[in-house]
From TrEMBL:
Signal sequence bounds: none
Family matches, as InterPro entries: Acyl-CoA_hotdog, Acyl_CoA_thio, HotDog_dom_sf, TesB_ACOT8-like_N, TesB_C
Protein name: Acyl-CoA thioesterase 2
Keyword Hydrolase attached: yes
Classification of source organism: Bacteria, Pseudomonadati, Pseudomonadota, Alphaproteobacteria, Hyphomicrobiales
Description of how the protein assembles with itself and partners: Homotetramer.
Pfam families with a match to the protein in the record: 4HBT_3 (PF13622), Acyl_CoA_thio (PF02551)
Length: 295
């Protein structure tokens, strides 16, 4: 297990303060705001710990304020329903006395019934794509500096882009679609709740960025102010987050400073694991941008 994965597991292991009240912390990596995927994952962990006979199958969340990574976040869970088939929870993330994030999650144990799913697109296998060290060695000199720093940072999630051109291009417009293989960088415990939380964590990665492909920009572009605003996740089938999954993303709409993106996660054998949707802020900065020479 890598150090980054160990730290992620420690961060997801929330401290119980009181009944239905938990505390979580952020990694100290110099970010100005808490990573949205971390808040989603921690809130899901908090909600799941109050449900004993069902697993999360969907969540809907809103980011209300940017999180302060230097201060712990308190997660307050409200038990909305405990039925024979479903349980429902609301979880609020609180920091500096204010609610910065709210999540509603539904829990259900699968039963026998009708079944169908879309098949994944045909893409190169992850073994046929460069790992991150080779990716940086091969393309690093062509990347904008903020993108290169992102890939050089040790992370608990490994990504292998099917189309590396997305991370190299400077100002090139294209269809707002991207496909990325993702997995945890080390073996995770067998607890399915850990795998659901890990998937929730990385479901926020690269998704909003997809809406900027059509405009020749990324979330790192100095002209863009980007932030996740809401996030929805549906979990369809059992999976392991430490095994390769294909994250297929597209963005059918952007308008008025908002970008909408969708995602589907497939297992190596083609099973549809999860579906994701998100809208985010992709505002053009009003002040003159600096650092454009990097692009």
């Amino acid at each position: 297990m890598t150090q980054a994965v160990e730290e992620l597991l420690e961060i997801l292991d929330l401290e119980k303060i009181e009944e239905d009240l938990f505390r979580g912390r952020s990694p100290q990596v110099g970010w100005q705001r808490v990573f949205g995927g971390l808040v989603i994952a921690q809130a899901l962990v908090a909600a799941q710990r109050t449900v004993h006979n069902a697993a999360a199958h969907s969540l809907h969340a809103y980011f209300l304020l940017g999180g302060d990574p230097t201060t712990p976040i308190v997660y307050q869970v409200e038990r909305l329903r405990d039925g024979r088939s479903f349980a429902t929870r609301r979880c609020q993330a609180i920091q500096h006395g204010r609610v910065i994030f709210t999540l509603a999650a539904s829990f259900f144990n699968p039963e026998q019934g009708l079944e169908h799913a879309f098949a994944p697109p045909e893409v190169a296998a992850p073994e046929d794509l460069p790992d991150e060290s080779v990716f940086i060695a091969r393309y690093g000199a062509q990347m904008p500096e903020p993108v290169r720093r992102y890939f050089q940072r040790e992370r608990p999630i490994e990504m292998r882009p099917v189309d590396p051109g997305r991370f190299i291009a400077r100002g090139q417009q294209d269809d707002p679609v991207q496909k990325v293989w993702v997995r945890a960088t080390g073996r995770l415990p067998d607890d399915p709740a850990v795998h659901r939380a890990t998937l929730a964590y990385f479901s926020d990665m690269t998704l909003l960025d997809t809406s900027l492909i059509a405009h020749g920009r990324s979330v790192f572009h100095p002209d863009i102010q980007a932030a996740s605003l809401d996030h929805a996740l549906w979990l369809h089938r059992p999976f392991r987050a430490d095994e390769w999954m294909l994250y297929v993303q597209d963005s059918p709409n952007a308008r008025g400073g908002l970008g909408f993106s969708r995602g589907a996660l497939y297992s190596r054998d083609g099973a549809l694991i999860a579906s994701v949707a998100q809208e985010g802020l992709i505002r053009l900065r009003r002040e003159p941008a600096t650092g454009l020479e990097q692009w």
